[in-house]
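Subject: sequence -> structure tokens, single chain

Hey, anyone have a minute? Need the predicted structure for the following. Not urgent.
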Amino acid sequence: MAPSGLLVTGASFAAFRGMHWGLQLLPAPGSAAQDRWKWRNICVSLVHSLLTGPGALLGLLLYPQMAADPIHGHPPWALVLVAVSVGYFLADGADMLQNQTLGQAWELLCHHLVVVSCLGTAILSGHYVGFSVVSLLLELNSACLHLRKLLLLSHQAPSLAFSVASWATLATLALFRLAPLGWMSLWLIQQHHQVPPALVVLGGTGLATVGALSITQGVRISISDVLRSRPHSSNPGHREARVTRTCDGEPATKDDSPLGLKD
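Reply:
Had a minute. Here:
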């Protein structure tokens, strides 16, 4: 099963790198012209999330055996879904290395390294594919995160669309990010005797890393979008300060801040 999984991973990597390159030929919206690379990068990330998140949810609904037996129970197409995701993370890492300094990208590169290591284990071994598909439910929340960032880059905050995206991000964070992470952590603890110690350490490290980033991201969004969005003043200066935040709700002067969570 490894050769076919590696083939799909390579094809996915080429497709997403081609998407990065192709978007360079298209003009970014005028409001996002100051950071065209970030706009392109998030657009590609949104495509990945819209492919793998709904795919994982539909797969688990049609084949619940993947959750009942996360080690062995999976149909062949599930491996393809995991391999597509690995190819994306490799392509996204390459894109960041090409367009950012190591100091700017290190947080996300560490995240990508952990994710590729965990999902890559499923591809190489042919096992734990169901476990990996459950982890792809997180992409349903990532899709909302990416949409929120694109609205911020387009200076659509505050707006009704941005408010809907913010609340959808927080709701899916609880339902499709924290809940699956909790289930995977509980399963790993209960079934540790079935899993090699090295994979327990790898899986535990991955869950802890993504969990910490998820909670941090949720707190940032709650503060920047919910608490700070309450009406305090109607003067133009206050309004301008609200619309010049970066993707993570930080001041726009911090151009070297990481993009935030990107699963």
